[in-house]
Amino acid sequence: MSSTQQTSSPKNQTLFIASLIILWYSSNIGVLLLNKYLLSNYGFRFPIFLTMCHMSACAFFSYISIVFIKLVPLQPIKSRPQFLKIATLSVVFCCSVVGGNVSLRYLPVSFNQAVGATTPFFTALFAYFMTFKREAWVTYAALVPVVAGVVIASGGEPGFHWFGFIMCISATAARAFKSVLQGILLSSEGEKLNSMNLLLYMSPVAVLVLVPAALIMEPNVIEVTISLGRQHRYMWLLLLINSTLAYSANLSNFLVTKHTSALTLQSFVIKVGRDASSYSFIKKTIDWIPSQASIPSVMIEFKCWDYRVLGNAKGAVAVVISILLFRNPVTVVGIAGYTMTVLGVVAYGEAKRRFR
What we know:
Layout: H1 3-41, H2 47-68, H3 80-104, H4 109-116, H5 119-130, H6 137-141, H7 144-155, H8 162-185, H9 195-217, H10 221-231, H11 235-272, H12 276-285, H13 295-326, H14 332-354
Helix pairs in contact: 1-11, 1-13, 2-3, 2-9, 2-11, 3-8, 3-9, 4-13, 5-8, 7-14, 11-13, 13-14
């Protein structure tokens, strides 16, 4: 292989990863802003039906991408108990997504993201009581600014709404609960599923739950949706784009998680060299690498750090874009609270990694 090919390969991979990250940001921020626009500004006040549209799209596109395109290998459900576990996760997932969409009717996106950033607090809480998993006191101490930041942001939020706040907190807690519950229910090697296969099985169950819920709790949804479709020529297109972005957000999240590890490992190997002496020197230089660590474990450490930074940056980008688009008023106190929460999340992740 020529030196030109060796040089171009990392460049092509870097370009591919950059494209994935752009897709990840665009999908997540796009579906969030479109949800807000439809639910608050467009007159489409049916968060349960909107979530049902999202889950329908996820079910359809997951089936196409796994069964026909074979994006990832199909992992079949092996037993009835495994299916019941997945169904349970699906119901919790529905509650989380519906709660988040309901909150967008009453809260600006910026404050919604600030509250959503407290997910690690609820994850640690549920892990403590459900799995009896204990962290170092430094790790729990890092959660103090996470909660304090939201309290400060709440006091400085001009558009604060109690019901919206309760729904947003509930959605955040449900998201954390689902994460911990998934680790408990699908803990055996034979039952573990990657995120795309899990979405394939959870989405149809979610649709079956959401259809009757929408018809009962939003009884005029069909009539109003058809009426809005006649009044606004782009109504159906917006719903289609919104639902497609919901799947794209899940897909890009999976792909970014999968591929950033390979890029990080490759960059790491290129920098330190492939011989053992270079790697040993790096382990002595970078104090957080365990003495027994191998390159794959270092790759995971880098991956977790990079992914955490990307996730926090995504939230900040969503806040800035939402303020520019919707022009909701913000205060210095609100910005300070959100910043404190994000810094607390970063500190929590770092403490959890160092003191585990």
